[in-house]
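Table S4 entry, Glutaredoxin.
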Amino acid sequence: MQVLDTETRIRQQIADNPVILYMKGTPEAPECGFSCATVGALHKTGKPFAFVNVLTAPHIREKLPKISQWPTYPQLFVNGELVGGCDIVLGMQADGSLQQLLESLPAAG
């Protein structure tokens, strides 16, 4: 079994999951207010999303900002593209564009 380097693993996670949130903690137990607010906005869409707890994945926590060119967490990716962090996600949720973006994704399965 080949062990993937961190950058390859991150890129594969982003490619394999239409919606993935890199966050501190888990959706059930966020470990920072920004992650909690972002999870809340995603839950309001009713759409599923994957997540990675960067607190338990220090290599990902260190490497992802270099890949995404985004320095802070959480980081939301949709269809392989960085959407942004908490402020952007909350703004999109408020204006309806987050719902529209997630509605436009093909159904899983």
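The mean pLDDT is 94.
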